[in-house]
Amino acid sequence: MELAGKNVLVFGAAISGISAAETLLGAGARVTLADGKERDKLKQADALSGLECRAMLALGRQDEELLDGMDLLIISPGISIHHALPQAALRRKIPVWGEVELAGRLCQAPIVAVTGTNGKTTTTTLLGEMMKTRFEQVVIGGNIGVGLAQAVGQVAADGYVVAEISSFQLEAAGTFHPHIAVMLNLTPDHLDRHGSLEGYAAVKEQIFANQTSQDYLVLNHDDERVRDMAKRCRSQAFFFSRQIELETGAFVSADAIWLRWQGKAQQVCRIDEMKLFGGHNVENALAACSAACLAGVAPSQMANVLRQFCGVEHRIEPVATLEGVRWFNDSKATNPESSIKALEAFPGHVILIAGGRDKNTDLAEFMNLVKQKVDQLILIGEAAARFAAAAQASCVKNIVQVGSLEEAVETARQLAQPPQVVLLSPACASYDMFDNYEQRGRIFKQLVRKEERQG
After folding, report:
1. Tens digit of pLDDT for each residue in 223-269?
2. Are 177 and 210 in contact (CB under 8 A)?
3. Annotated active-site positions, please?
4. Which class does domain 317-454 fall in?
5. pLDDT for 308-357, tens place per residue?
6. Could you tell me which of 54, 138, 183, 429 has the fewest CB atoms within 10 Å of its CB?
7. What is the spatial distance between Cα 453 and Cα 455, in angstroms, rounded to a whole number?
8. Do 420 and 325 meet the contact criterion of CB atoms below 8 Å apart?
9. Single pTM value for the model
10. What residue segments make up the domains of the chain, in order of their start?
11. 101-308 domain in CATH 3.40.1190.10?
């Protein structure tokens, strides 16, 4: 679709919506930016001042009349395709795109897109650093950093776009076509939006739905659901595994990461050389090396990045050491599977702070590991009561429910003794008490550092 002169409604005035509006204005479209919230309720309200003289703002509205005269509707990831407004647009035969779809249509450079339930941000960031060793122009965006629609405009055809893509973004990504797609893992998440694990998986598979035989799909061989996706793709499947040595792909052998591709096997680096720790981060590294290999990055350059990369904020992030006790911020763990991976990174003696907005996911496996690894379970938020009941059913001892994150930190400070570690890994969304997991993690770090200053 030629965008110049078109009337476009962008619904959702957060990062993605504002990115889409700016991109559309740059392409010559006439833009209306709408949101169901009033201006004073929007997190990105300050960013709207730069749009007011160039676009129409329709805040506090989500009525169907917004669609009158529109040629296109762009929805933000937070807006489900099943929302009344996009459904009304479809009835009117108005195309509905997500911001990722817009970005894909405008992008000149090839895209490597990373999705999965857990590990997306670490893998995307790590892969981006690897790609920078091979290509002069590399941008990282999507579900992290800048909106993807604006990011792709910064890269020429000989560069690369590295994008973290969520299931929410894939709902309205009809023709999105990454040259390299990465599927890290698949476990139940966002079932309140997608309805079932099967519905969630179907949306995730949109990341490779438009690929051809000239494209690549990187798959986790150790995850049966993900491995099975090779049967449904038209692209070339490339596997990675932490458990077995593959004839072709990325794998672990003799405590080192290896690549075997086009008949040649090369060691990337030893696992103990990596600054990242934990088995889940070995998987993230394998996935990043796989995609980087397919893009032409040399294994020696991958190794240099792995030896320097310290991880991303809010993912098992070291915060402080107080009287011999190490404190870690894992606020990005918004589901039990992610918290399981965090707990597996420690030998035991964990004081765990968990809870928040409950996604009603199954807790049995998580609580069985809590029983093995956790000395004290401190629960916060709306999920606290259900988590406590699940913990008791798994014979977890030493459970306490508190009213705030501040009280959780104070309780952990009173209880923790070396060699214990304190880990914030909520296994829940943050929206009951915080704007997002980033705010939750930063407040946790502030509280810990306050304790550090007070000695």
Report:
1. 999 999 999 999 999 999 999 999 999 999 999 999 999 999 999 99
2. yes
3. 120, 143, 190
4. alpha beta
5. 998 888 999 999 999 999 999 999 999 999 999 899 989 999 999 999 99
6. 54
7. 5
8. yes
9. 0.84
10. 7-94, 101-308, 317-454
11. yes
